[in-house]
Amino acid sequence: MPAPAVHGPVACLWRTAPGLVVPRTYAARPEFAAVRADFAARGCPIHVRQSGGGVVPQGPGILNLSLAQVFAGRPLDHSEALYRHLCALIGDALAAFGIETRAQPVEGSFCDGRYNLAVPSPTRKIAGTAQVWRRIPGDAPDRHVGLVHALILAQGDPAELTARANALEAALGSARRYDADRITTLDRLLPPDEHPDFAAVLEVRLRETLRAWPPLATTAPARPRPES
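User: That's the sequence. What structure does it adopt?
Assistant: Structure tokens below.
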């Protein structure tokens, strides 16, 4: 959890080397340590994250956007708004390229969730999201830092990305498998000669959008009182 968020809203846009990222539930499996060492030896390190969900690939064509800020009240009162805020922000940035998105589950995609971002006709996932909350040491008990994260499939081969996730599931003895046709990368939605380095172009657009969008309110709206 980024400490600077305690002092004000923080946004981080980043890319990393190829690998896989899993939640702590994967790390709890007895065979995980051996599988992790084997994948690392083959040039595909596995990292463990604090948020939930499932296995996701990483690599240079994938953009990661993390937003963090302090909220007052219960995390549950802010969780939906934080997801919607992140999805709307990314959707605004993508609209500049004529790409329409909506938040929804995409069955068969890796790390499926209610707040995937997907493109229609046919429905395919182009981003996944996750969230994690932490109390602030020494602060009031109802003040938390909320972090929401998006993994945006800007460029790459959907079949290769999905194969990496499936290879890990198989190595761990899981029967779960993902369908490459349920995801796409954003560069494949554009003409071949347009934005050949779309990850870099999208990164610029996302930074512009981040500067234009205000952070969320730090307190949740008052809940309506039940009628007597």
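The longest strand covers residues 124-135.
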